Amino acid sequence: MPSKRPTLFFLLFPFLLSISRSFPTPVNSSRTLSLHKSKLHFDDQSLTLLWPLPAQYTFGNQTLTVDPNLSLVLSGNGGASGIVKEAVQRYKDLIFKHSSKVPSTSGVVYDIQKLSIIVQSDNEELQLGVDESYSLLVGKNDEHSIIGEATIEANSVYGALRGLETLSQLCVFDYGAKTVLVSKAPWFIQDKPRFEYRGLSLDTSRHYYPIDVIKQVIESMSYAKLNVLHWHIIDEESFPLEVPRYPKLWKGAYSKWERYTVEDAQEIVSYAKMRGINVMAEVDVPGHAESWGKGYPDLWPSPSCREPLDISKNFTFDVISGILAGMREIFPFKFFHLGGDEVNTDCWNSTPHVKQWLQDRNMTVKDGYQYFVLKAQEIALSLNWTPVNWEETFNTFPSKLNPQTVVHNWLGPGVCPKAVAKGFRCIFSNQGVWYLDHLDVPWNETYYAEPLEGIKDASEQRLVLGGEVCMWSETADTSDVQQTIWPRAAAAAERLWSDREATSAPDTKLSALNRLEYFRCLLNRRGVAAAPVRNQYARRPPIGAGSCYDQ
Amino acid sequence: MPSKRPTLFFLLFPFLLSISLSFPTPVNSSRTLSLHKSKLHFDDQSLTLLWPLPAQYTFGNHTLTVDPNLSLVLSGNGGASGIVKEAFQRYKDLIFKHSSKVPSTSRVVYDIQKLSIIVQSDNEELQLGVDESYSLLVGKNDEHSIIGEATIEANSVYGALRGLETLSQLCVFDYGAKTVLVSKAPWFIQDKPRFEYRGLSLDTSRHYYPIDVIKQVIESMSYAKLNVLHWHIIDEESFPLEVPRYPKLWKGAYSKWERYTVEDAQEIVSYAKMRGINVMAEVDVPGHAESWGKGYPDLWPSPSCTEPLDISKNFTFDVISGILAGMREIFPFKFFHLGGDEVNTDCWNSTPHVKQWLQDHNMTVKDGYQYFVLKAQEIALSLNWTPVNWEETFNTFPSKLNPQTVVHNWLGPGVCPKAVAKGFRCIFSNQGVWYLDHLDVPWNETYYAEPLEGIKDASEQRLVLGGEVCMWSETADTSDVQQTIWPRAAAAAERLWSDREATSAPDTKLSALNRLEYFRCLLNRRGVAAAPVRNQYARRPPVGPGSCYDQ
């Protein structure tokens, strides 16, 4: 394995030190910003218009021009990566969207003509914990500086992708000069994520999302440096996924056109990987599974009492095994979500053959719930998957769960502290702040929600893998999903990426709001239907005419 | 000029006649459809799932497979057209979005392996009235048929684009076979638009739309065969457009980032042209122009009374001339919209120097309004533009308007009848049914609105160029604009394209609803955020979980 630490930083260290002396670092600055409502706040040079905020950065006071024919020099063991090359093309299209005024025949010399990307490792495997760190330098080649280009150095291709995103946010089209400019150069950025799991869930059962729309969501996630799409594929309402071993299951789809083939799912995974985003699939058992019985009614306790899945039949677990075995070929991510939430066991009690089965084994329905979840965990483990389960499983039988289990919080605050105290890993998704379908949660409540709240011990803190904002789709479909996800998912994304200190002090609120407004407009510029930030309720139209940067 | 009539129709006429005999044409069928709410209505073979409905069509009962490696054979004088080639690639990407199951090494023979496009004319000029007719045949090469391919024949490249859109709607991915299928083949379609002007207006002053978003809107317009984007660029609130002759004008933009360069506007026009869509620009004078004075305060009667534009200064008309001369280089469309609506002349009365000027010229403020509009018309005419004006100009001084003027209706019904009776051409946009910001208008009121209502005389009917749905942006921005435009713009698009008889009878309501739901889901599949059809108010989220095809 190559060194985890980018070497460029050390090569250039004496130089960087001199930059740091010249320009005070704005990180953790304690000065309070005055409240000014005018749109001119974006001319305030104290705002760092990057989202999420990098871990460390310094900047200067130069303005540099960027060549629309920016050349790329790839080096390092990972220098041949197609993932990086494709990403450079995507970002070039984003950065140079507007035609430059200067005719190519003129003798204009741009300050930044070259982008060097150094990738240490040629390992393109994407997994949780892959090294996403990078350093980025943007400087001019003149008598004061040895840097004459933009340089990204990273240990993995995925770190390089994060660096490209940051670079693209530094490059701003200037309508006056008709040129892409980098302000406040030279920039030196040394960045890495605070949490390794930065997720967004998407529920394709309450409404079906066409693959183009899922791709739009994934693409926009990469702009905020989120890295896990938790795909809640199936639920009570519909079963859209093709399962080759049980081909009648997707009879539970809403219609013959609201389905995902195996190839569709593979394409989603591949599209996400190109953007450094993992896809964690979920099969939520034994509740939230009514749609399974459309194809195989035997999975229902009875035709009139359809949920949870029939615990008494071997067929039920055969089907789960068949589904998971098929999905294992699609989803390489090491986690697999088994659900386990909101299990109402009434049907087990009221259906004679199920009740009898439980009695024969001396089980209560609660025992049955535990039995079912653990059996599903075994299936996932046997496929070399780490199980993730919603918190009810932990709340109900914590000592029985497989110790590898990742507990997924949702019901409220305080669950991750309990889970990590018992040695479990945890994902924070407190519904009061991180459920995107809760439209009454303003951006700042999402932003200041802290996954480590109530956890003091450093070794316990390390068990919190990160967090996830959840996009349940009862009232979201293709028409409004991006509007519901953004901008609040970005608020969570900065919480999960950036340093806790830099994003937690009360005096950050105004600058965070202004930066988030800017990022929302950046999403809009990239064609993403992110909603206004200041609205009291999420997903509402703008209240009147006005600038994107003020709404 | 080549013949206006596709020759293929005649070559194949004996064959087509036999199809018509075998399969009853569904046009104007008088049978009533039973009301069934189930999603299975889409299996009802009586529904023709094309939007807008073609002028003439017949179909059969074969199901044909389509080769993902569909080849293109272009011929005719327009056979070298880059517009057609690019469109073919776009539609191929849309049609073959899902991976086909069949490995390319296998020897499966697809029924449709070739698409022939015959374009008679090599004239790529896009204008109002360009020939958009086409014929489309999709048939299998077997003992019953001489056709073994899909064939589009058109007089112009723009007719070929319309034919490609129709073909793409016939090609449906079958999730079971994992192949693109054409059902109910053979198809013979002979199609042309009912009206030559089928517009959507977009207001980029109340909110700024990034160019990517305008492109998304244009792309989606092409799916519904709309052909005019009426770009309401400037209004009171902001002046986003660069005007080289008066470079301070776009100081009236909301911010330095909410602007369109000349190159941006050119790119919009070019992008639209590739999709057969004209761009009609608007400069709304003398009202709705307050933002002009941000850069040139002399254009205001006074700093405290800022609208309408100062009629008393030559500078005002110099600026209008300068703006229009610059825009003439961007917008080749023969119409130019001069606004003229909602002119409140109080400022002219209350500003001493303006009042004095009016008195010196023996004008009332109403005379001043007429003087201003006519002077703006002269400027447009001198640039070889046909002026379009909002109906207030016609309502106030019909006998003074230049006879070339196109009257743009908006205030209510009954205006086009009056305008065409006086020999003016007219565009129908009755706000009660075709203003998309009126969220309380359900799809069917938009759909059954008839531009020719109240006009009996055929020569007067010909003066109605068509109609336009208007997307005013007080509460629309990037986050919700597509959701507000669709699906109701599609309802108007069918009204404007398809035969009046086929779309007007009361018994069409259920089939139109079902077809519109299908088209809305098609938009969703193509990544367009079209809203549910059945909601009582437009732009509302779905009421609960469910199939796209039922909401």
Automatic annotation (TrEMBL), chain A:
Family label: Belongs to the glycosyl hydrolase 20 family.
Annotated catalytic residues: 342
CDD domains: GH20_HexA_HexB-like (cd06562)
Enzyme class: hydrolase
Domain of life per record: Eukaryota
GO cellular component: membrane
Catalytic activity reported: Hydrolysis of terminal non-reducing N-acetyl-D-hexosamine residues in N-acetyl-beta-D-hexosaminides
Pfam families for this protein: Glyco_hydro_20, Glycohydro_20b2
Protein keywords: Glycoprotein, Glycosidase, Hydrolase, Signal
Classification via SUPFAM superfamilies: (Trans)glycosidases, beta-N-acetylhexosaminidase-like domain
Domain called Glycoside hydrolase family 20 catalytic: residue spans: 195-499
EC number: 3.2.1.52
Naturally occurring in which organism (per UniProt): Coffea arabica (Arabian coffee)
Keyword Hydrolase among record annotations: yes
Protein's UniProt keywords contain Signal: yes
Secretion signal span: 1-22
GO molecular function, one term: beta-N-acetylhexosaminidase activity
Official protein name in the record: Beta-hexosaminidase
Annotated ranges, domain Beta-hexosaminidase eukaryotic type N-terminal: 50-170
Gene Ontology BP annotations: carbohydrate metabolic process; glycosaminoglycan metabolic process
From TrEMBL, chain B:
Gene3D superfamilies assigned to the protein according to its UniProt record, in alphabetical order: Chitobiase/beta-hexosaminidase domain 2-like, Glycosidases
Keywords: Glycoprotein, Glycosidase, Hydrolase, Signal
Secretion signal, residue range per the UniProt entry: 1-22
Gene Ontology MF: a single term: beta-N-acetylhexosaminidase activity
Annotated CDD domains: GH20_HexA_HexB-like (cd06562)
InterPro entries, A to Z: Beta_hexosaminidase_sua/sub, GH, Glyco_hydro_20_cat, Hex-like_dom2, HEX_eukaryotic_N
UniProt-annotated catalytic positions: 342
Protein's name in the database: Beta-hexosaminidase
Originating organism: Coffea arabica (Arabian coffee)
Gene of this entry: LOC113725526
